[in-house]
Specification:
Layout (H helix, E strand, L loop, with lengths): L11 H10 L3 E3 L6 H5 L12 E4 L3 H14 L3 E4 L15 E4 L6 E4 L4 E5 L4 H9 L3 E2 L10 H6 L7 H4 L6 E7 L5 E5 L4 H7 L8 E8 L1 E2 L3 E9 L4 H11 L6 E9 L14 E9 L3 H12 L5 E2 L2 E4 H4 L12 E9 L4 H13 L6 E6 L21 E9 L5 H15 L3 E2 L12 H8 L1 H14 L16
Helix pairs in contact: 1-3, 11-12, 13-14
């Protein structure tokens, strides 16, 4: 006789008991805000949680974790909801939606900022820039701070200031057993190490403290686009200029020109090779960096002095919530003619006009952090290759995923260890080993065994406990 097992149930009494003590909102499927709140960045994951808990503070987070443990329901942690792997929500489970926790405090004397877990990078940048300070943040302003940072924290300023994770001074964490611990250089140092790139495996981060750096509110940034037939020259010029100084944080990308006023009408909806990002140094030096690219004759050129907060919004319109997204990203050892050819061929063969094929320059401050100082690996890689497959029609999913995988396969001879898992839609054991390396996986597993041996926090780039 076959045995049957029933799925965990969320008992009405347990939810009612929680309701009596919970200061934040408790949202169920019948509530009018449910559909809006459950939506996430990647439209491939249209999930329906049994309940969405919106904590007002750490005490509510403790209660939410307790409900997940007693009910046995899967638990997802949501900040900005940008997890391209869909970790921000879960079917038939509990979503702990931290977006109501939006406190921020800048200390301009100490050059630090403390932020709660519901804040996004646009909000953090606005506050820190009021004091002429900054830290590496997401290239899309709606990205949540904690998930971005614990997954590495790659942004335009990474060559100047390091990854966001490299600038974390401390974090307040609610563990699986409801204990609130602080991870810093003075206490729970190993946990701090794991949070710097090891994802959400060890608890719910309710607050983070970052080191800030002087950053003038006006930087030199923008976007310039070139015809595809200029692609080889553009990529080689971009490559050769990418190590001019740590101030140069930029990308070269195959994208579709938008139908906007600054784009010549004949280029609306056409494939272009774009150079975008920022140069966070003296503007006259930035002009010298840009000169060889401008000599190639861009279709349009928006590079100029502009507020850092404006640079941060440059690709917001190209990354809306709700599209289908399948991403892969790789560190690459070199940018020879073979990689350039693959990059340009990928741009020409994109099955969706929303898809972006991107290369970023590494090095600088990233490579000056010790390989074992954080959970992040692959710091010596000079370039990163990103395949951001994006499309709107779910019927086109198979075609778009197959395309991403085919380009990834073509890059195989050039791939090195250690890409951020923030940029991967599918994450299995092989991807974990590629990202961290086998030794770091075991070090992370030891942390998992200590802080979450029952794997309550498994909706993430999951390091499975030993048991």
């Amino acid at each position: 006789m076959a045995s049957t097992t029933s799925a965990p149930e969320l008992e009405a009494d347990a939810l009612e008991q929680l309701r009596g003590d919970f200061r934040g909102d408790i949202v169920e499927p019948a509530d009018p805000t449910y559909d809006e709140l459950r939506g996430v960045f990647n439209g491939m994951f249209d999930r329906r949680p049994r309940v969405i808990l919106r904590p007002a503070g750490a005490a509510d987070v403790i209660r939410g974790i307790g409900l997940a443990r007693t009910s046995g329901l899967p638990l997802a942690i949501r900040g900005g909801g940008h997890s391209v792997a869909g970790f921000s929500s879960v079917d038939d489970g509990i979503v702990l939606d931290l977006r109501a926790m939006r406190g921020i405090r800048v200390d301009p004397q100490r050059k630090t900022v403390r932020v709660q877990a519901g804040l996004n990078w646009g909000e953090l940048d606005r506050e820190t820039q009021a004091f002429g300070l900054g830290v590496t943040g997401g290239r899309v302003t709606t990205t949540g701070i904690v998930g971005f940072t614990t997954g590495t924290g790659s942004g335009w300023l990474e060559r100047k200031f390091g990854f966001a994770a490299d600038n974390v001074l401390s974090a307040d964490v609610v563990t699986a057993d409801g204990e609130v611990v602080t991870a810093s250089e003075d206490e729970n140092q190993e946990l701090l190490w794991g949070l710097k790139g090891g994802g959400g495996n060890f608890g719910v981060v309710t607050e983070m403290e970052f080191r800030l750096n002087p950053l003038t509110p006006i930087v030199y940034g923008g976007l310039a686009a070139f015809p595809p037939d200029k692609g080889p020259e553009v990529v080689r010029a971009w490559r050769d200029l990418s190590n001019e100084s740590d101030d140069v944080g930029w990308a070269v990308a195959n994208v579709t020109a938008p139908p906007l006023s600054f784009v010549p009408e004949e280029w609306h909806g056409k494939h272009v090779v774009a150079v975008l990002g920022m140069i966070a140094g003296a503007h006259d030096q930035a002009e010298k960096v840009m000169k060889p690219l401008r000599a190639l004759g861009p279709v349009f050129d928006l590079w100029q002095p502009m507020p850092y907060t404006m640079v941060q919004t440059l690709i917001d319109p190209a990354n809306p919530y709700g599209r289908q997204n399948y991403w892969r990203a790789h560190n690459i050892d070199d940018l020879d003619d073979s990689v350039i050819d693959t990059f340009l061929e990928a741009g020409a063969s994109r099955p969706s006009p929303f898809t972006a094929v991107i290369m970023l320059n590494g090095g600088g401050a990233i490579g000056r952090v010790g390989e074992n100082d954080t959970a992040i690996s692959g710091r010596k890689s000079p370039f990163n290759f990103h395949l951001n497959g994006m499309w709107e029609d779910p019927a086109a999913t198979d075609e778009n995923i197959a395309w991403v995988k085919s380009i990834s396969k073509a890059l195989a001879p050039h791939i090195s260890e250690g890409i951020s898992l923030n940029f991967a839609t599918e994450i299995g054991d092989d991807a974990l080993k590629e990202s961290f390396g086998a030794k770091k996986v075991e070090r992370l597993r030891a942390l998992k065994d200590r802080y979450d041996p029952a794997n309550v926090f498994r909706m993430n780039q999951n390091i499975k406990p030993t048991g």
